């Protein structure tokens, strides 16, 4: 198993076999994290976003509720920023299109709740703002915070702002782990005379998939005969395994956009399978 942020279960099960893969060949270090007070967080955020816009860099803002995301996106638009809001009701291909447009600079700020789940690889993002970072829970747990901060780790100017009035246990552990990784990378860079540089990644063209359904897009991307099987109770397990293999292969090749499409399909089929079992 390879994981950037293994959970407690994974760590306990495999602790004696764990190997740290921390060093990045780009020399990039984990982004610095600063803590700003919640009082006045929106006005402070606006100032920070403006700095990024002037540098032609992108910003991710993560909130705790759908309403807050919607209201914040609307407010930022009123203030003249080019903003999009990413939420769970947007289909996979539209989400991919939104992410592509963020990278292309068609808008500057992406607001959402659980942005980490998108498998985002966005080198143009140099600022991640975490609102209500001190509200303990899944969305503000140690692994989640580390993953969120990692969205700014592809850019040499990467930085993270936690808006919080207290430092929770999750925040403390996340900061400790990121500082540990940061120190190791800095030491390696100094020892090997490495000058950090931002990741340069092409923006994939998605026009060919724009008018396709989710199922058609998977077949188009991979052109695999086995994905065209008629789904039956007998073969659904095999199809799920095949799609999972394709998803892992795409992820191994750093094709996270295709992997995200396949993951959605795999989860749909797993849900379909469990529903069929529950009926019997």
Automatic annotation (TrEMBL):
PROSITE patterns the record matches: HELICASE_CTER, UVR
MF-aspect GO terms: ATP binding; ATP hydrolysis activity; DNA binding
GO biological process entries: nucleotide-excision repair; SOS response
DNA damage found in the keyword field: yes
Pfam family, one: UVR
Matching InterPro entries: Helicase_C-like, P-loop_NTPase, UVR_dom, UVR_dom_sf, UvrB, UvrB_YAD/RRR_dom
Domain UVR residues, every copy: 237-272
GO CC annotation, single: excinuclease repair complex
SMART domains reported in the protein's UniProt record: HELICc
Keyword annotations of the record: DNA damage, SOS response
Record carries keyword DNA damage: yes
Residue ranges of domain Helicase C-terminal in the record: 41-194
Gene3D superfamilies: P-loop containing nucleotide triphosphate hydrolases (3.40.50.300), UVR domain (4.10.860.10)
Complexes and interactors: Forms a heterotetramer with UvrA during the search for lesions. Interacts with UvrC in an incision complex.
Family listed: Belongs to the UvrB family.
Protein name in UniProt: UvrABC system protein B
Organism for this UniProt entry: Endomicrobium trichonymphae
């Amino acid at each position: 198993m390879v994981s950037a942020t293994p959970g407690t279960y994974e760590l306990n099960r495999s602790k004696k076999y764990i190997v740290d893969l921390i060093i990045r060949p780009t020399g990039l270090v984990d982004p610095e994290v600063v803590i700003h007070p919640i009082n006045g967080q929106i006005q402070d955020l606006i100032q920070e976003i403006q700095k990024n816009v002037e540098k032609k860099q992108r910003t991710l803002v993560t909130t705790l509720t759908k309403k807050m995301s919607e209201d914040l996106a609307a407010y930022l638009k009123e203030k003249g920023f080019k903003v999009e809001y990413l939420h769970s009701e947007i289909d996979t291909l539209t989400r991919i299109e939104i992410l592509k447009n963020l990278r292309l600079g068609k808008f500057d700020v992406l607001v959402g709740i659980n942005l980490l789940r998108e498998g985002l690889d966005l080198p143009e993002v140099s600022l991640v703002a975490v609102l209500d970072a001190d509200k303990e829970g899944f969305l503000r747990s140690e692994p989640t915070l580390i993953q969120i901060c990692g969205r700014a780790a592809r850019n040499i100017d990467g930085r993270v702002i936690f808006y919080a009035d207290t430092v929770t246990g999750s925040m403390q552990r996340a900061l400790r782990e990121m500082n540990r990784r940061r120190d190791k990378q800095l030491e390696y860079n100094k020892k090997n005379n490495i000058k950090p540089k931002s990741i340069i990644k092409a923006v994939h063209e998605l026009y060919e998939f724009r008018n396709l359904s989710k199922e058609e897009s998977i077949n188009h991307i991979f052109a695999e005969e086995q994905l065209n099987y008629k789904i039956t109770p007998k073969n659904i397990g095999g199809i799920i395994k095949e799609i999972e293999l394709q998803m892992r292969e795409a992820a191994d090749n750093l094709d996270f956009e295709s992997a995200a499409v396949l993951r959605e399909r795999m989860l749909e089929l797993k849900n379909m399978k469990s529903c069929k079992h529950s009926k019997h």
